[in-house]
UniProtKB/TrEMBL annotation:
<keyword id="KW-0238">DNA-binding</keyword>
<dbReference type="GO" id="GO:0003677">
    <property type="term" value="F:DNA binding"/>
</dbReference>
<protein>
    <submittedName>
        <fullName>DNA-binding protein</fullName>
    </submittedName>
</protein>
């Protein structure tokens, strides 16, 4: 099965998670969420929306060639 992100604008994501748009773009710049040309994957932020976490964790780089 192939993963397919659900891409939304920063404004849409901000509305759904109840945070300012700037927070969404900051999380992307910090490496907490993936940016797809200025759009963001809603599926990466479901835990924030449900209150399971307050901030998405920083992602670690995957080793190359492993």
């Amino acid at each position: 099965m192939t993963y397919r992100p659900v891409l939304l604008s920063p404004s849409d994501i901000a509305h759904l998670i109840g945070k300012p748009k700037g927070t969404v773009t900051r999380w992307a710049s910090e490496g907490r969420i993936t940016s797809y040309g200025g759009l963001y994957d809603w599926l990466e932020l479901r835990d924030v929306a449900t209150g399971a976490v307050k901030v998405p964790p920083k992602r670690t780089a995957l080793p190359v060639g492993v």
